């Protein structure tokens, strides 16, 4: 049932009296997608022991999800346009729940990796349709702003909730419940979607399947090359072949996008200097951040002996700092300063936090050595991410708004995939070399092996800090948008013509 009232622009708009309950359903689905990016981090050490994952392959539990999510996100948006947002939303929820149940029941590493990839694929269908439903459900400007604020707050808190819930479930039930928990959430969301959500019929849209295959195939080849470098070496023909094949596929993807009738990624979006700079800044910054999540989880549980729950709680200052940096600093200053005035200091702060973590030893204290680094890292990420999203989506034509938002998220997921694979390989390779150089007798193993593990983490974190500084350099050189002029929408930087 709908009621008609006067919109804020003066025209009559149709609104559903149950639209706020619909928002709960949409936010619940988005929360589930965001939650799964962090909840499994806490469970990973337990899953590794249970399934016998090697240190080189453990990163695929995370990478399989982020890679499928990022590689198929643009295609998922097109599917929603073609068959209808509500239908796609429900299918995405059901598929995500099924993949989660499959992962929870995994009896082998391959089954878990496959289930996580399926989760990512259905998340790529679910996330764009959720955002589109939110846009079409709330059409009045004031209500839309409120709805997006609630949606953003719930989605933004997903990482914190993921750490805590992951710790609780792993410690008191099993790591498998970090996957099973999605099933009841999805059941509630599906029931709510069928009753509360409405949608306009899908319109004519052509799926760019060749583009999806080329783009996703290229990313998989590159990430797989990073993971294989740990066991084969960086100059091994297989590793070099994977890198070369991945680059070739991505070049073919770019060429195809210039000819495709309905390209997944219209290249004029990337060619814009500010937008392209934001995409690259996001990619590089996330490479460092995702590696941090993986290493700190293993360091806190494996070296300091934290329980899964205590590990989840230990990450809360990082999440709180990200939220504070984003909502209390970036959101206020972006209305007065150019975006790169926030991005560059943000990446430098985050790099500083990473450098502090390079001093970790097997006897480091959380309060004096880990906590300050997490707070610095969180503030830096908060200062960086908010202006990246605002600048990347500013001044976009209405027909390109969806694909632009999806592209920002794609670069974020791809950065997570590459960062996890690359930094995990660097860490495990460095640890192996440390053991080979210092293990003189079996009696030394109890001392040398933990030292080697921490040494591997610190070497990888040095690389992460370097990549984070590179993100700051890219933001400083490429993102030339100016501060908003008087009368322009708040938080919408004014693009400056590229030199």
From TrEMBL:
Major facilitator superfamily (MFS) profile domain: residues covered: 22-484
Listed SUPFAM superfamilies: MFS general substrate transporter
Keyword Transport: yes
Family annotation (InterPro entries): EmrB-like, MFS, MFS_dom, MFS_trans_sf, Sugar_transporter_CS
Keywords from the named record: Antibiotic resistance, Cell membrane, Membrane, Transmembrane, Transmembrane helix, Transport
The organism's place on the tree of life at top rank: Bacteria
Keyword check for Transmembrane helix: yes
Transmembrane segments: 20-40, 60-77, 89-111, 117-136, 148-173, 179-197, 209-226, 238-256, 277-300, 312-334, 341-362, 374-397, 418-437, 457-479
Protein name: MFS transporter
Species annotation: Streptomyces tropicalis
